[in-house]
Amino acid sequence: MEISSTGRLVVRITAADVGKRVSVRRLGEPGASQEKFTDTVGVLTSWNDGVLLITRRDGETVRIPESTLVAGKVVPPAPARRRGPAASYEELARVSARAWRPVESERLGEWELRAAGGFTRRANSVLPLGDPGIPLDEALSVVRRWYGDRGLPAYVQTATGAEGTQEMLCAELERRGWVREVSAEMWIGALAPVADRNEPTGVVLSREAGADWLARYQRKGMSEVALKVLGWGSPRSSEAESGGGPSVWFATVPGEAGGAPAAIGRCVVDGRWAGFAAVEVDPALRRQGLASAVMAALARQALDEGASAAWLQVETDNAGARELYAGMGFAAHHAYHHYRAPGTSGGGR
To answer: Which of 73-87, 118-132, 231-245 has the lowest mean pLDDT?
Structure first.
């Protein structure tokens, strides 16, 4: 906390610091049995009518009455990671977007409007990596019309918790009544330890998601659109057409004869990055190392193709997955969220 030369706590932030990362200390809630201090670190997204709104790393907004402040200061952007590969938010946002491509997209300034028949929010949401080129209210109107024309709810994907993330946009969306749904985290780590963690015995790799792989995949009733999202390839980008696009692999551990696989996984190799997704294990066979074996086989393939770093996305309430990935050396880089336009019903995750 900011302390003056006389030893007193000092508030050194004002409304002019909106948009900056701050650290504040305030008095506890009125009526508490003992007076306590509470510290909050995040982006100052509003200071109006005597109330501060601070968006924390996890995307939650904290409301702080100005009258309760006892100290505050501007602090540097979220510190760089101390382990694992160095990566910016924008780099990770772009590489993860290329790994889960929509069937249709359109540019609105530096925003990308993406649609894939409603298959997952990730492929049916706006990726706002910069300025839309028009005022925000006008941009959101364009977004709502674009998705409405396709019979889809309008979503905007945002991120919090790293340098260059979108706490201010989150706050503006919430002020306009957009509803946040399904927050998750992007985790990153070195690739080689994943490859070395387990001997990938019995894992079969393929370029396509065959009928056996799909039999284990948790999304049922797969459409042609969904298969295109899963197996994105060369026809959909200039990079891929020139031979430099992402490389998609599917891993399968066969199950009993005629049954669904014991485990599956998917990996997209894109430059130095390998992105893991759809790692699923037969519930009756969990905690036998199958997920590790699937990821090891995919990681070895990615290493052969020149990748050195890895990323994956995990929901905050998936304790089992978080334990597994932490043991492999992964750690959270930032949180991401999907905001749904007011007055519309939700879609897939």
So the answer is: 231-245
| CA 171 from centre of chain | 17
Bigger pLDDT: 31 or 227?
227
Report CA-CA distances (Å) from 268 to 95, 100, 261, 306: 9, 9, 20, 12
Nearest CA-CA partner of 27 in 44, 9, 45: 9
Mean pLDDT estimate for the chain: 87
Please, are residues 74 and 42 in contact by the beta-carbon 8 Å criterion? no
Position 347 pLDDT exceeds 70: no
Other beta carbons within 10 angstroms of residue 222's beta carbon come to 14
Among positive and negative, which fits the CA dihedral 292, 294, 295, 296? positive
Three-state SS letters, 260-302: CCCEEEEEEEECCEEEEEEEEECHHHCCCCHHHHHHHHHHHHH
Under a CB-based contact definition with an 8 Å cutoff, are residues 310 and 273 in contact?
yes
User: CB within 8 A of 49, min separation 6: which ones?
Assistant: none
How far is residue 349's CA from residue 341's CA, in Å, rounded to a whole number? 15
- The DSSP secondary structure of 7-19, one letter per residue, reads S-B-B---GGGTT
State pTM to two decimals.
Answer: 0.84
Give dist(CA 111, CA 140) in Å, integer: 11
